[in-house]
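fyi for ur records
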Amino acid sequence: MKIFHFLFFCFLSDAAGLVKAKHNIWSAAEGVNGTLNCNLTLSGSTKFFCKEKCERAEDILIKTDGSTAQSGRFSIKYKDGASGRGIVFLTFTHMITSDSGMYRCGFGNSSTPDAYGDFEVIVSNDLDKNNGFYHTEMKGENITLVCSINAYGQRTFFCKNQCKNEGEILIDTTNNKSVNGRYSIEHRPGSMYPLYATITQLTKSDTGLYICGYGNPLSPDSYESEYVLVSDATQSESVTPGVSTHCPDSSWLLVVRASLDGVLLMAVFLMLFYISKTRRNFGLNTRENDTNLELSVGENFDPTSKHKESKSSRTKPTLHY
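which gave:
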């Protein structure tokens, strides 16, 4: 059984006035076993693992106050992490195509959780049955891998394939951050997750196994391995509350946007009314007094200024991961 670590990151965009939460996607071949780690920024006594909207009783796969639990082909195991965080190991056995869908793991009540993470699983027959889960991303996007949940030293590395020879080593450095083309690795001393590796502008040829960690890449002190699958498909985006406890609820941002749009429409209406009225007065004054008048309407007024101010003054949430 293969174990792969993953984190839930939150990506927000206010384009078109919507807050879009981008979730992690994991692909696997039908019939394989795999375990994913749900790393959350809090800890709790009640652990849950559910599918889809987690609103109905049949959506709840597992809910327990214990450290381990199993229900059919699904099981969870809880472990306390550093800095008050909690890690829930989620295991799928003998996966079938109907296992494909959205999942949530977290602490507390599944419908109103204290902390949670959302992710998607895709099960197909087109993948290697020996490789477990693939961290799936879209072509052209960037992907960040968690190389370690503990710091082990100063020398870090990032490899593709088995890291058995020099030609497979992408980065080998003693710097806190190093970049090699589209590949980079960053060591963050004191961080909750101290080592990350990133691939930018993904292409189909980036699909494969990646290894990153501490020490000599040919005989590492500590490392994590992860299969990456680059897809042509477009990832769906959910306009829902955030992916973790640090992601803001999108509903209040939509209310703010609606309020700003209302104010903007009212401002445009008043501006047009003022211009129309001024033009009528200007016509009357011109007929009564045939002198040269300097039109001052709009001289010190930028019709777009209210729009610019509303957009710049929109509340920007602070994101953490």
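The chain has two domains: 2-246, 252-312. thats all i got for now
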